[in-house]
Amino acid sequence: MLQITIPESEDWDEVNEMFVNKIPSKTLSLEHSLISISKWEAKWHKPFLAKHEKSIEEILDYIKCMTITQNVSDDVY
User: Fold this and answer.
1) Is the pLDDT of residue 76 over 80?
2) 21, 64, 4, 26: CA torsion to nearest 10
């Protein structure tokens, strides 16, 4: 299992020209497993371990599939 800590941050709202609420620090537990590969393949309908290049969206989705920590906001990723 891999644990990573995403540091606290805040974003700039270009429309309103102001800083928006901070995203709190979050520790994620990730596990590369057959279950996470299966979840990813069910969504993308192609083999994960193939030699083809993966898009940023596909890679990010695999990180989400590996996440064991529950109730993680998409903002954290």
Assistant:
1) yes
2) 30
